[in-house]
Amino acid sequence: GEGPFTIFAPTDEALQTWLAERNMSNETFLARPDLAEILKLHVVMGKKLMSSDLVAGESLESMHGDLDIEMVGDVLKVGNASIVKSDLVGSNGVIHVIDSLLEP
């Protein structure tokens, strides 16, 4: 689709840590039968949600299930991940960088 989209994108370090914790190679990860579901969990379609739109106690409907929003101290969390950089605006949406991979 054309968007808008809200993307929760894990850092490279977060992905590598996730793979190492599972003793998994990049190739094995890319061959997973549930890869599409994992990727879709990181995307909210049809909405450009800035960090100011993310409210603790609410949930978002991703392309593969709900994501709970929490505030832990002064850190905004989506699912199990902390948002480490927010509001990176693109022509068809916004990206929020997170510190771990979201899992279904």
Question: What distinguishing features does this structure have?
Answer:
seven-stranded mixed sheet; 21% helix; alpha+beta; single chain; 7 strands; 104 residues; globular
Description:
It is built from three helices and seven strands, in the order βαααββββββ. It is of the alpha+beta class. The chain has a seven-stranded mixed β-sheet with strand order 2-1-7-6-5-4-3. A hairpin with a 2-residue loop joins strand 3 (59-62) and strand 4. The radius of gyration is 14 Å and the shape is globular.
In short:
It contains 3 helices and 7 strands, in the order E-H-H-H-E-E-E-E-E-E. Helices cover 21% and strands 39% of the residues.
Topology:
Blueprint lengths: L4 E6 L1 H10 L4 H5 L4 H7 L1 E3 L13 E4 L2 E8 L2 E4 L2 E10 L2 E6 L6
Parallel strand pairs: 1-7
Antiparallel strand pairs: 1-2, 3-4, 4-5, 5-6, 6-7
